[in-house]
Amino acid sequence: MELKITRIGNSLGVILPRDLLTRLKLDKGDSVFLTETSEGYRLSPYDPAFAEQMQTARDLMRKRRNTVHELAK
């Protein structure tokens, strides 16, 4: 999909087509994250840093399952 850079006020921006916004489940005011990969760039509605933090938390809770269970009482 080719997107053109256009002037938006005093800035430059890219207009995302409605079908792309629907597939990404994005709406006005939502944030997107641009991540550099070995193949180029990836645009995603999900923060990769947050996803990594959540995975670390899941691993810790799995490792300390009994402690988490006791704290939940």
UniProtKB/TrEMBL annotation:
InterPro entries documented for this protein: Doc_partner (IPR013432), SpoVT-AbrB_dom (IPR007159), SpoVT-AbrB_sf (IPR037914)
Single GO MF descriptor: DNA binding
Domain SpoVT-AbrB, first and last residues per copy: 6-51
Signal sequence annotation: none
SMART domains: SpoVT_AbrB
SUPFAM superfamilies in the cross-refs: AbrB/MazE/MraZ-like
Name used for this protein in its record: Putative addiction module antidote
Lineage: Bacteria, Pseudomonadati, Pseudomonadota, Alphaproteobacteria, Caulobacterales
